[in-house]
Amino acid sequence: MSDDHWFDRRSFLKHGGAAGASVATVALAGCSGDGGDGDDGNNTDGENGGGVGNGVDEEENWQDLDEPSNRAGYLQRANLAAHQEAPWIFLNRQYSNYGKRTSLDWEPRSDELIWAYTMAPEGSSVTVTQGKMDTGLDPHNHRETPTDNIVTQAYDRLLMRTSDGSIEAALAEDWERIEPGHVRFHIREGVTFHNGDELQPSDVAFSINRVVDPEVSLESPQNDQLAGVTGAEVADEGNAVDVFSDGINPVIFSLFASYCNIVQQDWIESRNSEEINRNMNGTGAFQLSNYEASVEVSFEAYEDHWRGAPDFDSLVFRAAGEDSTRVNQLVQGETDIIVNVPPQQVSSVQDASGAEMAPVPSTRIIYNGMRYDVEPFDDPLFRRAMNYAIDLETIVQDTLQSFADQTAQPTLEGFVGYNEDLDPYPYDPERANQLIEKSQYDEADLVLHTPVGRYLNDLEIAQATAGYIDDLDNVSAEVNQVEFGELAGKLTDGDIETSPDWYLIGWGNAVFDASQTLIPLLTSDGALTSWKNDEFDQLVNEAQGLPGSQ
Amino acid sequence: MSLGRFLVRRTLQGLLVVWGVITVVFVLRFLSPGDPVTFVAPLDASPELRQRIAADLGLNKPMHVQYADYLAGLLQGDMGYSYQRGLPANDIVLSRVPATVELAVASSIVAIVLSIPLGVVAATRRHSPADYGATLFSLVGISTPNFWLGIMLVLFLSVQLDLFPTSQRPVGFLEAWTHLIRFKLAGPSLSVPLDAGAFADDMGTWLWHITLPAVTLGTYFTALITRLTRSGMLDELGKEYVTAARAKGLPETLVRYRHALRNTLIPILTVLGLQLGTLIGGAVITEAVFAWPGLGSLLIDAINSRDWPIIQAALIVIGVSFVVINVAVDVVYGYLNPQVGYE
């Protein structure tokens, strides 16, 4: 891979004008990581935090390639840019490590939703043990996976996802884009709520407005999940719901396949917040039978569900925060599914009779953010050196016991905009040392700030990463453990200067679209950004101005 | 001082302590890092959404206004709403109290039943194998970390031998008794039947599930009381009144248990009271290992998510428990040792 030739080419293009860009015809190349020593030693373009140069040329710079032809192309280009400019140390795609009883027929989903309707147990009941319980049963007043797992059993969505992430019909039988910023959902007929009332399109419109409009009964923390959506109203003579957005909103159908459970307007409006948090009335396949706040939620099958009754009668959600407690429950047959089996406990599950692992790649990426505006991370050469310095393959194999995938770009495989031509940076400490020598900073003392226990083996990943970097010449690195809330507060306060220079964090993207990672994490105005590059912003903006594929 | 005046005075002192707890915790809330909005809002929430959430939770008011609001709410029995769960903090915290009290009392019973006989035997048979055994047990018990013991008990007695469940509390002690209480309240001739079978089932389930957590939590306590009992008994048995009692021809059993043990119990009672208060607020590790839905695990979850209404409510409950237990200990102390009285 070339390292610092990009800057020279870019400088040339800047000075040479657009004609220069048009001659770049080389297709995207895999960044295999070998290649030149370089001789320029020239590098950063300062403010934009991007632009690297090397000298030996076996790969095209992202800025030199032809204009993409569609939205996915722009997103792929943006991923190439992120790979080459290296605003992150690319780490791993986290797995959802479920354990389950072998007697239970269940396929885990990559969107992390534990959806009981597709389960087929031997008996008539299923028990799921999560790490945490719900934070209340209001489907629009939370942002956590454990709560989502519980409320989505009782509250359907307009659209749903298959286990591999594809969109499928749910309460909306059909959907269409009417014009930019205007889509229509045709609502399924004959669907009933658990109280026996029939689902009306007005309920759907109310549900959407309850999420996006603070004036409608709730300040929903899911407001940003339906990004761009401004409101909904009943249409097509009462058979459909029109949803409006400010702008084309290319991912709108994808958003509704991941978010926005449908509630009954009358039922919600006649109850206060506390009652809504303790009771449920949806159209889902399971109806609430008992609720013990933060201890246990029990469901029974809803026989009149529009898909047909589930295969079993009773569903229970419990929680055990301690990993070993969950594993012991599974091994002893006290529960059917457990979440988050840590790698070091996998053998306990695999060795037990009647239990097995059910891992699935999740929608969460773990990475190291490096602030573009501080030394030494303002130099792209240095940032790339960080990626070469770590043996990611070994980290995944040893620290995560292969329950993770290496990453080379911000977007995960299978998502819209994923760039298939990119490979993870290889482990090449020699090259890392060379790049550091060529950078503006030939020595550095670094501190990696990491939360502990927030992500699977996060501290161990951070220690391994810092260890590899500490092994480089003239660079020392150490780990600083920080409480997640403190770290998250600094990253999200809207002021990049309060963020740590170098930090480990994870990001989940349940929409299966690159934009939902690139915009918040890497664009100049992103809520958690650590980078600023106008041309990258332009790529993402172009993508968001084009219709999606669905 | 009469018992009544003593109780009134101690209650007023206790209220002062609880008010101190409330105030200190409230101030800590403003000094500790981590904005509660960070835990409620999504990571990518816009600044506008964060501001709206802060306003919704009342966090944008000045500190003294929030404090006054909180105290006013408390006087009306309102501890606020959980930031995370959207439910009244009173309900959430009080729903966790029975599990915690059950565990604290059960582990105390385990400790008392085992430790006092062990301590007495060790003291009365000094330098015998029984004494060495009891001393070794107490040394090991004090040195063994709770979490390790809990995990080992689960692995051996639950996973290997399948004698006990690994965790959970499917039924509470009081829930089991409702099968009998409802019958008694309604009367045998009314419609609520005496369900002795359900009572037995539920009590059996409860006992089955609480045994390992109680043993885990009670082991340190057992070891501590064993040592205290042994040393206390040795001390008392060497005193002149014991020699006098023996010289008067009092049977040895009476000398040991009527006189020496009773005096030994006074300092033990103080430790028991303090320990019980600690157990109510501090059984965090045991609750985590056994997924026991008590106050300790709730408090830790709340701290981790900066759910201040829950933190404050839990600490108030724990503070009140400490005060009540200590007053009760003082009352019993005065009964056991009239020389102390209710001063």
Structural summary, described in words:
Chain A is 28% helix and 21% strand. Chain A is α+β, with helices and mostly antiparallel strands and 550 residues long. In chain A, strand 7 and strand 8 form a beta hairpin. Chain A starts with a helix and ends in a 6-residue tail after the last helix. Chain B is an all-alpha fold. The longest helix of chain B is centred in the middle third of the chain and has 42 residues, at 196-237. Chain B has a single domain (89-336), classed as MetI-like fold. In chain B, helix 8 crosses helix 9 (196-237) and helix 9 packs across helix 11 (252-282). Classes of the chains: A alpha+beta (550), B mainly alpha (343). Chains A and B meet through helix 8, helix 9 and helix 15 of A and helix 2, helix 3, helix 5, helix 7 and helix 13 of B.
Q: What is the topological layout?
A:
The complex is a heterodimer of chains A (550) and B (343).
Chain A: H1 5-16, H2 18-22, H3 71-85, E1 88-101, E2 125-130, H4 145-154, E3 159-161, E4 167-169, E5 172-179, E6 182-187, H5 201-212, E7 229-235, E8 240-245, H6 252-258, H7 265-269, H8 273-278, E9 286-292, E10 296-301, E11 314-319, H9 323-331, E12 337-338, H10 346-351, E13 355-370, H11 380-389, H12 392-399, E14 404-406, H13 429-438, E15 444-450, H14 458-470, E16 475-481, H15 484-492, E17 502-508, H16 515-522, H17 534-544
Parallel strand pairs in A: 2-11, 2-12, 15-16
Antiparallel strand pairs in A: 1-12, 1-13, 1-14, 3-4, 5-6, 6-8, 7-8, 9-10, 10-11, 13-17
Helix pairs in contact in A: 3-17, 11-13, 16-17
Chain B: H1 3-31, H2 36-40, H3 47-56, H4 63-75, H5 89-124, H6 129-143, H7 146-160, H8 173-186, H9 196-237, H10 240-247, H11 252-282, H12 284-289, H13 295-304, H14 308-336
